[in-house]
Specification:
Length: 398
């Protein structure tokens, strides 16, 4: 299928630009800069150099032999985004957008963050490129993710507590948008997933598509074929979009996105927009699938993994879902925890709880697939950040 946005920023019925008038010009400026950068060889060379020497790319493709043997079915392969600098795929987008900010002559970057992974990635590249950096973070998230606040501050970023609404990611995005409107001449807003008004979903997917491009040829080299199934977790949807983008045109490769099933089906118990009763609506500048009540009020969400705890999903995923090209399912907190343990024990790889959702789904379907079938899992991040949360959930810590 054909993918990507049309000229107005729509993915079929989804996407678009639902923002106050004051943001229309900066969004248009951003789109022009991005289109220019994409054709600019110097920009491409600089990005490639930093991906290699700073972010640690290419990340390896790893064959999980012991995990596959334990499950007794399809072979499982892991794309090791957990080995990226700062511990997740978030650096791919942060690096690209920070270079774009410099190209646009901006001296300051701002970002929103939930768990802090995106904030850390942006603070990191801001230090690298000498940009002033401010990160908006809900006070509730700051309390839960203190080590990430310390990391950002150590690298010279100012972390601004957001005390409105639910004091989490959704409110931090609102504050970041407000800052951007006020300071747009000097400031670029580094949005962290394939969300928000056009051109953000397009830009973030482009910078994350390095995952898919690399693994497509790595997989070819190691197996001479294509995977039968590609699995990725879906918070906003950037790591999934990054790996899926290379396989979308290959219709015989099945693509599955895994949402956060949380601890139940009720409102506020999960963050499954497609697989858990969401519907289309507008949030943060884009028309896409959301968790909302009958009056269009955004519902609270829950996931054991902070990176998937968000009420909306990127508009391109909504298009892929409607077209039947990608299927979306959910995995519960408990199933993700089990996979977190299983991968640690069988392979010596501690996955991020987000990534553990994708591993859990692969572990569910592998046993019923033939031994010669191949499942490719995007391991979006490492789990060191989650040890404390896991101990707390399992009652071993306060
Ligand atoms: C932020 C994050 C996610 C979720 O974000 P996407 O945009 O859906 O990729 C998944 N995994 C890790 C490790 C993260 O830090």
């Amino acid at each position: 299928m054909k993918t990507g946005p049309d000229r107005r920023g729509y993915y079929g019925a989804y996407g678009g630009v639902f923002v106050p008038e004051t943001l229309m010009a900066p969004l248009a400026e951003l789109e022009r800069a991005f289109v220019r950068a994409r054709k600019d060889r110097t920009f491409g060379a600089r990005l490639a150099e930093l991906q290699a020497t700073f972010a640690g790319r290419p990340t390896p493709l790893f064959r999980a032999r012991r995990l596959s043997a334990r499950l007794g079915g399809a072979q499982i392969w892991l794309k090791r985004e957990d080995l990226c600098h700062t511990g997740s795929h978030k650096i791919n987008n942060a690096l690209g957008q920070a270079l774009l900010a410099r190209q646009m002559g901006k001296s300051r970057v701002i970002a929103e963050t939930g768990a802090g992974q995106h904030g850390v990635a942006v603070a990191t590249v801001a230090a690298l490129l000498g940009l002033e950096c401010r990160v908006y973070m809900g006070v509730e998230d700051m309390r839960r993710q203190r080590p990430n606040v310390d990391r950002m501050e150590l690298m010279g970023a100012e972390v601004v507590p957001v005390d409105s609404g639910s004091r989490t990611l959704k409110d931090a995005i609102n504050e970041a948008l407000r800052d951007w409107v006020t300071n747009v001449r000097t400031t670029h807003y580094v949005l962290g997933s394939v969300l928000g008004p056009h051109p953000f979903p397009m830009i973030v997917r482009e910078f994350q598509s390095v995952i898919g491009q690399e693994v497509f040829s790595q997989f070819r080299k190691q197996t001479r074929g294509l995977p039968d199934l590609v699995v990725a977790c879906v918070g906003g949807g950037s790591n999934a979009a990054g790996i899926f983008s290379a396989f979308i045109a290959h219709e015989r490769v099945r693509l599955v996105g895994v949402e956060a099933g949380g601890r139940g089906e009720g409102a506020g118990e999960h963050a499954a927009r497609f697989a858990g009763g969401g519907s289309p609506g507008v949030l943060h500048g884009t028309y896409t699938w959301l968790l909302q009540d009958a009056h269009g009020q955004i519902q609270p969400t829950h996931s054991i993994s902070a990176g998937m705890d968000y009420p909306a999903v990127g508009p391109e995923h909504a298009m892929w879902r409607d077209a039947g090209r990608v299927s979306y399912t959910k995995v519960s907190d408990a199933e993700a925890l089990e996979a977190f343990r299983m991968l640690s024990e069988t392979e010596g790889i501690i996955p991020a709880l987000e990534s553990a959702h994708a591993v859990a789904y692969a572990a569910q379907v592998a046993p019923a697939m033939p031994l010669k079938a191949n499942i490719l899992v995007n391991l979006s991040g490492r789990g060191d950040k989650d040890l404390e949360e896991v101990a707390r959930v399992e009652g071993r810590a306060p």
